[in-house]
């Protein structure tokens, strides 16, 4: 496998470009340590000519935001016939759209927070104030407002009263045309990574997230020292097993492939509540999948080599 060439795709033009570049550098370093011939390419107008001129054996998209997670780039790679790491286009679209992912996961028997998906047109047609008042009465406070699509907690807010609700919805609309209003579920926030190595799925230890400011927002995710992590999470063995089983089921329900990260809240009951699934999880120095690998005692170069080999199959 040492003569295998891997093109890591990083960057793009989404709001998460900087995170993608950091993730791409980390993945490239680990793959080079594993002996692969690695290039790092941006997702721009030069990408397809470069792939055609110097065709890699496998592509690893480490792109966050729409270009990396909405399935469109995967469609193009399918057309080109280039093997790639990660989920196929259809699975990416399912995971990318939070209300659709939650509906599918709930149908599979996993709890989800009660949510409303409110397009901008709803506010225009019915009036912003009556819609917000109805949503607040239904959900109660605190509640969570987020874009229906997107990652890195961009546009996500925990709202404690009516005065802040309108602003949170407007902020969510900066990242998409639909805002999700969701009941706040108290509990332990955990992230569970699922990886495919040698044709077998492996659930890595859950990582517990405790943000210093109380909210695991963009700054908390990518500022070293702003969040405390526990890997493995401080869960009883029985609850940890329940969470791992739920992550495996989410991965399969959405048709994800090679790697994913599934986020849950674990309330006092110990029954995990699904928040979202990530088809292109972060790979930076503060990201959760690398921390989960470390908790499992797996070196990143070994893990990433196994993932690339799964893609080549």
TrEMBL record:
GO terms for cellular component: cytoplasm. Mg(2+) 1 binds at residues 263, 276. Residues 102-309 form the ATP-grasp domain. It catalyses: 2 D-alanine + ATP = D-alanyl-D-alanine + ADP + phosphate + H(+). Binds 2 magnesium or manganese ions per subunit. The lineage of its organism: Bacteria, Bacillati, Actinomycetota, Actinomycetes, Kineosporiales. The gene is ddl. Pathway: Cell wall biogenesis; peptidoglycan biosynthesis. GO terms for molecular function: ATP binding; D-alanine-D-alanine ligase activity; metal ion binding. It is an enzyme of class 6 (ligase). InterPro entries: ATP-grasp, ATP_grasp_subdomain_1, D-Ala_lig_Van_CS, D_ala_D_ala, Dala_Dala_lig_C, Dala_Dala_lig_N, PreATP-grasp_dom_sf. PANTHER family: D-ALANINE--D-ALANINE LIGASE, D-ALANINE--D-ALANINE LIGASE B. HAMAP family: Dala_Dala_lig. Its cofactor is Mg(2+); Mn(2+). SUPFAM superfamilies: Glutathione synthetase ATP-binding domain-like, PreATP-grasp domain. Mg(2+) 2 binds at residues 276, 278. Cell wall formation. NCBIfam families: PRK01372.1 (NF002378). GO terms for biological process: cell wall organization; peptidoglycan biosynthetic process; regulation of cell shape. It holds the Pfam family Dala_Dala_lig_C. It is found in: Cytoplasm. The active site is at 16, 152, 287. This is D-alanine--D-alanine ligase. Belongs to the D-alanine--D-alanine ligase family. Its EC number is 6.3.2.4.
């Amino acid at each position: 496998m040492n003569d295998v060439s891997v093109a890591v795709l990083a960057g793009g033009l989404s709001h998460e470009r900087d995170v993608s570049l950091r993730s791409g550098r980390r993945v490239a370093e680990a793959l080079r340590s594993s002996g692969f011939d690695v290039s790092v390419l941006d997702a721009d107008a030069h990408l397809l000519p470069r792939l055609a001129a110097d065709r890699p054996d496998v592509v690893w998209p480490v792109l966050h935001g729409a270009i990396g997670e909405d399935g469109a780039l995967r469609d193009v790679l399918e057309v080109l016939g280039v093997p790639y790491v990660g989920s196929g286009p259809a699975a990416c679209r399912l995971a990318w759209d939070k209300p659709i992912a939650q509906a599918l996961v709930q149908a599979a028997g996993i709890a989800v927070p009660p949510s409303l998906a409110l397009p901008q047109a709803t506010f225009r047609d019915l009036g912003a104030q009556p819609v917000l008042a109805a949503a607040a009465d239904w959900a109660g406070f605190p509640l969570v407002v987020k874009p229906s699509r997107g990652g890195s907690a961009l546009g996500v807010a925990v709202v404690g009263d009516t005065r802040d609700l309108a602003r949170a919805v407007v902020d969510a609309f900066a990242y998409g045309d639909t805002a999700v209003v969701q009941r706040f579920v108290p509990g332990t926030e955990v992230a569970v990574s699922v990886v495919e190595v040698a044709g077998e799925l492996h659930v890595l230890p859950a990582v517990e997230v405790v943000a210093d400011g109380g909210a695991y927002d963009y700054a908390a995710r990518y500022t070293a020292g702003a969040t405390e992590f526990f890997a493995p999470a401080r869960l009883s063995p029985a609850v940890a097993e329940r969470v791992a089983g739920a992550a495996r089921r989410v991965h399969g329900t959405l048709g994800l492939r090679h790697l994913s990260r599934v986020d849950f809240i674990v309330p006092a009951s110990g029954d995990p509540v699904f928040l979202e699934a990530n088809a292109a999880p972060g790979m930076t120095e503060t990201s959760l999948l690398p921390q989960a690998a470390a908790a499992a005692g797996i070196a990143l170069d070994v893990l990433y080599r196994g993932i690339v080999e799964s893609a080549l199959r």
